[in-house]
Specification:
Blueprint: H1 24-35, H2 39-42, H3 44-51, H4 54-81, H5 88-96, H6 98-132, H7 139-153, H8 158-186, H9 205-217, H10 233-262, H11 265-271, H12 275-320, H13 327-330, H14 341-357, H15 360-388, H16 402-421, H17 423-434, H18 436-451
Helix pairs in contact: 1-8, 1-10, 1-12, 3-4, 3-9, 3-11, 4-9, 4-10, 4-15, 4-16, 5-6, 5-15, 6-7, 6-12, 6-14, 6-15, 6-17, 7-12, 7-14, 8-10, 8-12, 9-15, 9-16, 12-14, 15-16, 15-17
Length: 452
């Protein structure tokens, strides 16, 4: 059992079969590309409705970004000491033990990963249907086709997905810059101080507004799942997480101000998920609006690609440990490209099923709640690691212990807000996570019988 500096014991990790080929720009592109997707474009209406005023809506996006950044700074220290494929699954296991580690992995591969992919694809299909002039009945087929196409692309070696991440991240900056510049310089509304008078009362309050923004910020931790495929991950992983989240926080705040300067609050409320598409046409005409919508669709494809790169790596890491049914198949990688093809197809299949049974907006809130249950464990984990490891660290969280405490407070805030807002959905998703325990027990019993 290897020992890190200062005597902290780590569980033995499986030998990595994946290529260490991801550099700085690939890592940054995956972080930014995975975060910036559907949330900032489709959550403006729901954030505003919950907040009640434009000022509180802007504050919600900033507050959500601060929570995310403190969480990223906290996890960056943990990740720099555990640069293995698997991310949160590996961190929780090494800090708290096998059982909680398994639940963290099970949560990501059965609930969170497929749900977030299905949610982003669902939001993107709304824009695609509008772009091609199709009816609402085409939304699910468009979402399924897109997920399948990106999944097939990720059956190739990881460089292909990384290159696509760089291209789509660069491409998504065009619609983002257009919305920010046009809104800030040509908008004639007051971004601050507007009230949504058409809503009798804020639908959920500031807490639910922040929860909605966290879907827009979500995805930052997924780069940790590629720790086993990075060059010098001890230094690169913290840098990618911190710089990526900081850039997104600034971009999101400017986009929100730009949209609120161009569209009145009541109109954003009426338009809901179509507010950004309406702004594109209103600001740039039919052709310009089409081009801007195409840029946003490309942006969301980049987000899907980032998630499709990372979640199969969790399946792979768990399968290598024999934690899942059919682990021998799920851990298969291609001989040349070293791509976890069966794990990728598994995630694609689960996401496709979820598209048919859940609304994307509802899915987005529930998957954020589910993953934050385990984020909180990781945030507390930094105190455990500091106690166990007194030696030098590749990266140290600045302003310790203040930053981890803010991350913990933010996580508790998220959980309480969603429990109060949707207790039935919370019980459903927690139940799906807990179902993993008897499955783990059954898998291990089967392994013991085979060994006999």
């Amino acid at each position: 059992m290897p020992i890190l500096n200062g005597g902290m014991r780590m569980n033995t990790q499986p030998k990595e079969d994946l290529k260490r080929s991801l550099g700085f720009w690939s890592a940054i592109s995956i972080v930014v590309g995975t975060i910036i997707g559907s949330g900032i474009f489709f959550k403006q209406g729901s954030v505003l409705d919950s907040a009640g005023t434009s000022t509180l809506a802007i504050a919600a996006w900033v507050f959500g970004g601060v929570i995310t950044l403190t969480g990223g700074l906290t996890v960056a220290e943990i990740g720099s000491q555990m640069p293995y494929t698997g991310g949160l699954y590996v961190y929780i296991e090494n800090i708290y033990g096998r059982l909680l580690g398994f639940l963290a992995g099970w949560m990501q591969v059965i609930v969170y990963g497929p749900a977030i992919i299905a949610s982003v694809a669902g939001f993107m299909s709304i824009l695609m249907a509008n772009f091609f002039g199709l009816g609402t009945e085409w939304r699910i087929p468009l979402a399924v086709i897109t997920v399948l196409a990106i999944g097939v692309m990720n059956l190739l070696e990881n460089k292909v997905g990384a290159i696509f991440a760089i291209i789509t991240t660069a491409g998504k900056m065009i619609p983002i810059a257009a919305i920010i510049i046009f809104g800030l310089f040509w908008g004639n509304q007051h971004a601050f101080g507007q009230t949504v008078t058409e809503v009798q009362h804020a639908t959920g309050g500031f807490g639910v507004a922040v929860l909605a923004t966290l879907f827009g910020y979500d995805g930052w931790i997924l780069i940790a799942n590629l720790g086993g495929e990075m060059k010098n991950p001890q230094k690169l992983l913290p840098k990618a997480i911190v710089l990526g989240i900081t850039a997104v926080l600034v971009i999101y705040t400017l986009i929100t101000i730009g949209i609120l300067k161009f569209l009145p609050a009541n109109q954003i409320h009426r338009l809901g998920e179509n507010a950004t598409a309406y702004l594109a046409v209103k600001a740039f005409g039919n052709i310009g609006g089409k081009l801007l919508s195409a840029g946003i669709i490309i942006s969301m494809m980049g987000t899907l690609n980032g998630k499709m790169i990372t979640f199969p790596r969790i399946v792979y890491a768990m399968a290598r440990r024999g934690d899942l049914p059919f682990s021998r198949f799920l851990s298969y990688v291609t001989p040349k490209g070293k791509s976890p093809v069966v794990a990728t197809l598994f995630i694609v299949a689960l996401a496709t099923v979820m598209m048919f049974f859940f609304d994307p907006d509802h899915l987005s809130d529930l998957c954020v709640f589910t993953v934050y249950c385990f984020y909180l464990l990781a945030f507390f984990g930094i105190f455990i690691l500091r106690h166990q490891n007194q030696g030098p660290r590749p990266f140290s969280t600045p302003l310790y212990p203040l930053v981890p405490l803010v991350a913990i407070a933010g996580g508790v805030f998220v959980l309480i807000s969603e429990i109060l807002n949707d207790p039935a959905g919370v019980v459903l998703f927690i139940g799906i996570v807990i179902v993993g325990l008897p499955i783990l027990y059954a898998v291990k019993r089967m392994d013991q019988h085979r060994m006999k």
